[in-house]
Structures are given as C-alpha cells and as structure tokens.
Amino acid sequence: MPIVRVDPAYTSQRCTACGHIDKRNRTSQAEFVCRDCGFTAEHADILGADNIALRAPATWAQSTAPSAA
Ligand SMILES: [Zn+2]
Fold first, then answer.
1. Is the pLDDT of residue 21 over 70?
2. Would you state the pLDDT for residue 34?
3. What is the residue-averaged pLDDT of the chain?
4. What is the dihedral of CA 63, 60, 37, 30, to 10 degrees?
5. Model pLDDT, residue 54
6. In the chain, what are the domain boundaries?
C-alpha cells in the first residue's frame, strides 16, 4: 500500500455529493451544509476523511507523473 500525501486544506469544506468547495459549507465545527446543492452532513470530520480517501488516487497519479522541469 503506497503512502500518499494529501493536502487536507479543503477536505472539510468540500461537498462529497457535488464537489463544491466553500468554507461557508462548514457551518460549524460539527456541521456541514453545501452552499451549492444543499447536501448536509453532521460529522464534518468524517466528511473530511471521505474526501481524503476520494482524492488519494488522483494525488498518487500526480505524484507519479513525469515532471515538466
Ligand atoms: Zn454539494
């Protein structure tokens, strides 16, 4: 299992339903309401973990792509 670094900056602000990222999505430490589609989640930290899991494959592809240096 490869170890992949994922930037956690927006994971708790990203809607798992539509992908919309907005800091206002996070109405409180524990609540999430998407400003775009209205998706709600009560445990924003779990949402963040889901987003990290979803993003890992894309991040892995990026990290293994040849760099354009
Ligand atoms: Zn949404």
1. yes
2. 93
3. 77
4. -100
5. 76
6. 8-60
Please state, in angstroms and rounded to a whole number, the distance separating the CA atoms of residues 28 and 41.
11
CA 32 to ligand 1 centroid distance, Å = 10
For residue 1, the CA-to-ligand 1 centroid distance in Å is: 30
Of 3, 32, 8, 6, residue with least CA distance to 20: 32
How far away, in angstroms, is 17 Cα from ligand 1 center?
A: 5
Model confidence at 44: pLDDT above 60: no
Confidence at residue 28, expressed as pLDDT on a 0 to 100 scale: 83
How far is the centre of ligand 1, averaged over its atoms, from the C-alpha of 4 (Å)? 26
Ligand 1 centroid, distance to 33 Cα (angstroms):
8
Rounded to the nearest whole angstrom, what is the distance from the C-alpha of residue 14 to the centroid of ligand 1? Answer: 8
